Structure formats: structure tokens, C-alpha cells
Amino acid sequence: MVKNKASWRGKIFWALFLLELISFGSFPGWGKTITQKIAGEIIFQRKGFIFRFRPVDYTWPSSLWKYDLLIGHRFGRFVGYGYFKAEGIHRRWLGLRLGLNTKIMANRVRAIAQIRLFYGLNSSSPHHYYLIPALFYLCGPQKDIEVGFLGYEKQLQGHLATFIFGPAVILPLLPHIKSRFYWGSNLFGEGQLIYIKFYFYL
Questions:
Q1: What is d(CA 12, CA 62) in angstroms, rounded to the nearest whole number?
Q2: How far does CA 13 lie from the centroid of its chain?
Q3: Which helix (H) or strand (E) holds 18?
Q4: 63, pLDDT greater than 80
Q5: Which three-class secondary structure state does DSSP give residue 125?
Q6: Which of 14-18, 28-32, 59-63, 148-152 has the lowest mean pLDDT?
Q7: H or E element: which one contains 4?
Q8: Contact 171, 179 (CB under 8 A)
Q9: What is the DSSP letter of 91?
Q10: For 21-57, what is each residue's pLDDT tens digit?
């Protein structure tokens, strides 16, 4: 039974992955420079309290390494976090992450809207913010596979805004581990992003 379930999930994942690659060919950023990113996030939740720590967040070819620490609380459909972020050796920020995470259409669709505001702690860390919208359709026998689209806008002080948008898949690997695959294109300029993330729930 377990083997059949794992086989079924594997087939669904690769089918969705192939469909995303085909569909993404119609996006205007196709063929542009690709940035690759991998991250792992540890999540601890008890009642309304949420602790999130991202010790691994690596981007290449820029060879950029960063980590994030968040402490927050859930208020119904809304979540608020205090945020500390470090990037490289010298760059540090304090911030706020405010978000809405809700299910609609008979709990078959998950809608996400986030804003992240960062205040630089030194001259090497410019102030900036993110706007992150996402929409996922829940599928599979247990509605634990999510297929949809994710975007984020980053506005860095003194720079042009970047808006990355593209398809994403969230797939459970083990009872307490999920993975997310995302492939986005910069709709405001050049560049693409491939982002693989793992969530570890304690």
C-alpha cells in the first residue's frame, strides 16, 4: 500500500513537472539568464505560535548564502512575524512579514498574499520590501499536492523593481517533509529563477 502510494505520487510529480516546463515556454522570459536557488526551512508550530528558521538558502551562480529567522503568531487567516535576515558576511536586516493564507472554493484553492518589509542595519544593507501573491489548487486523494502560480515583487532602495512570476508545485515527500519546485520569469526585465525548497515540520 505504501509503495503504491509513493509510486503514484512520483508519477504525478513528474507529470506536473513536465507540464510546467512545456507551459512555461510561452512566458516572455524564456531563454534568459537562469538563477538557481535551493533552501531548507525548519518550522515549529504550537497553537498560534510559529517559529521558522531557514539555515540553508543558497543562490548560484552568484554564490550567495543567507539565512532567515522568524518568530510569529497566527490570527485566524492572518499571520504576523518578526524577521531577522542575514546575507553574506556584512549584510543584516530586521523586518516584518505580514500575510493572509486562506482556502476558498470549497477548500480546493489556497490563496496567499504577503508583504515583507526590511530595514537595513548597516550601510551595506539597503532597505527593501517584497510583495508575494500565490494561488494553488489542492489535488490528490488527500488534497496534499498543490499546483499553481507564485509571484514576488522585490523593490530595493535605489533600484528598479523585480517581479518574478511562474508555476509552482508543492509535494509532500514524507509525513513531516514537503518540497516546492518553482520556475519564474522576471516580467519587469531579464532573468529567470529556478527555486527548490524543502520544508521540515517539527
A1: 33
A2: 18
A3: helix 2-24
A4: yes
A5: coil
A6: 28-32
A7: helix 2-24
A8: yes
A9: E
A10: 544 444 444 445 778 999 999 999 998 999 999 999 9
Query: Which one, of 59, 57, 65, 61, lies nearest residue 33 by Cα?
Result: 61
Listed as own residue / partner, the contacts of 41-48 with beta carbons closer than 8 Å and 24 or more positions apart are 41/68, 41/197, 41/198, 41/199, 41/200, 42/200, 42/202, 43/199, 43/200, 43/201, 43/202, 44/201, 44/202, 45/201, 48/73, 48/74, 48/75
pLDDT in tens, 158-191: 778 899 999 999 999 888 999 999 999 999 888 8
The neighbour count for residue 167, using CB atoms within 10 Å, is 20
Task: Indicate whether 67 pLDDT > 80.
Answer: yes
Distance (Å, rounded) from C-alpha 135 to C-alpha 48?
A: 23
Number of residues assigned to the chain: 202
CA distance 170 to 182: 9
Q: For residue 144, which amino acid is it?
A: D
Cis preceding linkage at 61, omega within 30? yes
The rounded distance, in Å, linking the Cα atoms of 115 and 37 is 21
Q: Would you state the pLDDT for residue 30?
A: 46
Closest CA to 158 of 121, 188, 132, 125: 125
CA atoms within 13 A on the CB side of 89: 0
In this prediction, residue 59 carries a pLDDT of 92
Nearest to 133 by CA among 61, 184, 92: 184
pTM for the whole thing? 0.83
